[in-house]
Write a structure and sequence with these properties.
Elements lengths: L5 E5 L3 H12 L3 E5 L3 H20 L8 H5 L2 E4 L2 H4 L5 E4 L5 H14 L5 E4 L6 H6 L7 E6 L8 E5 L6 H13 L8 E5 L8 H21 L4 H6 L9 H8 L1 H14 L8 H9 L17 H10 L8 H17 L6 H12 L5 H22 L8 H4 L9
Parallel strand pairs: 1-2, 1-4, 2-3, 4-5, 5-6, 7-8
Antiparallel strand pairs: 6-7
Helix pairs in contact: 1-2, 8-14, 10-11, 11-12, 14-16
The structure holds nicotinamide-adenine-dinucleotide (NAD).
The site of nicotinamide-adenine-dinucleotide has 22 residues, from helix 1 and helix 5.
Length: 394
């Protein structure tokens, strides 16, 4: 395994600055790289501000923010900055040609042991590394936002990733601190869309799009639909979708439509909101008018009579089936990892705990749902409906 001491974080935006912060807190020397000085400076200032806040709270374990920041240097020239680093973590914008280019620049100019770990959410790790000259030293390292607070990191093995690269990345990720509890590192054994956490939650969005269209057809207000969650979701579906951004939700569905199944075709309501530019809080309006803030929306939902369109049991059934697909495709070798990753990445329990007892009833729920919605993707797969997944705990 590579002995990692010097780390280069590429892209000083939202994710890159968080990744650099936790790498510094773990004691690594970090070079922060972006394309313009102003971007690097902004990222650096954000990290410094975060460190000072932690110092003021006495959360830096005796060292000062200045002691830590001294280990952080800045650059806008990847080719020269990478000369003496052991690990590059890439968090540049989500564009394949740029990711491939920076991967190749890393391999062309870095030491012969350097590892390139990409934080892509939606791109193939294998494709990013393919033409780099060293695809065996490329892997995925998928963080959750905000990086210092979200416990989960998924480490992904591309088709060409060597065991040594994968093990080094797992070891490195495990050393990064988390400000909210114990880090959880999920090994992702195959390079498939959505990895583990996002993949398991992806088909739930098909169900929610169906629920949005159903409420729309019946002239039911959004707060009544959200009341179906019974206060048991941190954010009910319409609030959550607004919050994520209608456009982001629309793009996510199109991505899974291309990579997993045509059943991910976005629903009518989402398509219309996206076309109108009603994208959520960032445009002032989505499902809801956000001008009075989130609290007033949540108040309305609390008072609304449930619409009776969607239920949490069905959401768990959908997740159990997708979790079984993750096992079936060899992305994970056991369901405990999947449940633990969901808790660490989403702050929500995975489906296997309750699924152990309910899989037969849930298989029926899914067959009914496939009939009702015309979405074959909901049909329970053999591994789920047979209960055979129970043998794959670890
Ligand atoms: N935002 C999230 O919640 C989230 C979660 C997980 C993964 N991701 C992934 O992380 C990556 C970064 O996302 P973000 O939200 O931090 O984006 P961001 O827009 O905040 O930051 C991207 C940064 O990359 C820089 N950049 C662009 N081209 C570059 C290049 N050639 N070399 C160096 N820097 C370059 C930009 O100037 C910008 O500062 C994306 O791949 C995204 O899919 C994002």
């Amino acid at each position: 395994m590579v002995d990692v001491k010097n780390v280069l974080v590429l892209g000083a935006g939202l994710m890159g600055s968080g990744i650099a912060q936790v790498s510094l807190m773990a004691g690594y020397n970090v070079i922060l790289v972006d394309i313009k000085d102003e971007f690097v400076d902004r990222g650096y200032a954000k990290i410094e501000e975060g460190m000072k806040k932690l110092e003021a709270k006495g959360a830096l374990g005796g060292v000062t923010a200045a002691d830590i920041m001294v280990k952080c240097t800045k650059s806008i020239d990847l080719a020269s900055a990478v000369k003496n680093v052991d690990m590059v973590i890439e968090a540049v914008i989500e564009k394949m040609d740029i990711k491939k280019q920076v991967c190749k620049t890393t391999m062309d100019n870095g030491p012969s042991h350097v590892i390139f770990a990409t934080n892509t959410s939606t791109m193939s790790i294998t494709e990013i590394g393919k033409d780099s000259g060293a695809p065996d030293r490329v892997c995925g390292m998928h963080f959750f936002n905000p990086v210092p607070l979200m416990r989960c990191i998924e480490v992904i093995k591309g088709a060409n990733t060597s065991d040594d690269t994968f093990n080094t990345a797992m070891d490195f990720a495990g050393k990064l601190p988390c400000l909210r509890g114990q880090r959880y590192i999920a090994p992702v054994l195959k390079d498939r869309p959505g990895f583990i956490v996002n993949r398991m939650n992806a088909p739930v969005i098909i169900y929610l799009h169906w629920a949005f269209d159903e409420a729309d057809k019946r002239g039911i207000q959004w707060e009544r639909l959200d009341a179906d969650a019974g206060g048991k979701m941190p954010m009910p579906p319409c609030v959550l979708t607004d919050f994520t951004g209608i456009d982001t939700n629309f793009h996510i569905m199109n991505y899974y439509k291309e990579t997993l199944s045509p059943d991910f075709e976005p629903g009518k309501v989402i398509k219309e909101l996206n076309e109108k530019g009603d994208l959520g809080p960032k445009t002032g309006k989505g499902f809801y008018d956000w001008s009075q803030g989130r609290d007033s929306i949540m108040e309305k939902i609390k008072k609304a009579e449930p619409a009776g369109i969607f239920d949490l049991n069905t959401i768990f059934a959908i997740m159990l089936n997708e979790g079984c697909r993750i096992l079936d495709e060899g992305i994970s070798s056991g369901f405990k990892v999947i449940d633990d990753a969901n808790m660490a990445g989403m702050n929500a329990p995975g489906p296997f705990g309750a699924g152990k007892k309910n899989y037969e009833a849930w298989a029926k729920v899914l067959n009914d749902l496939a009939d009702k919605t015309g979405k074959e993707y909901f049909r329970p797969i053999d591994l789920m409906k047979s209960g055979e997944f129970l043998k794959m705990r670890k």
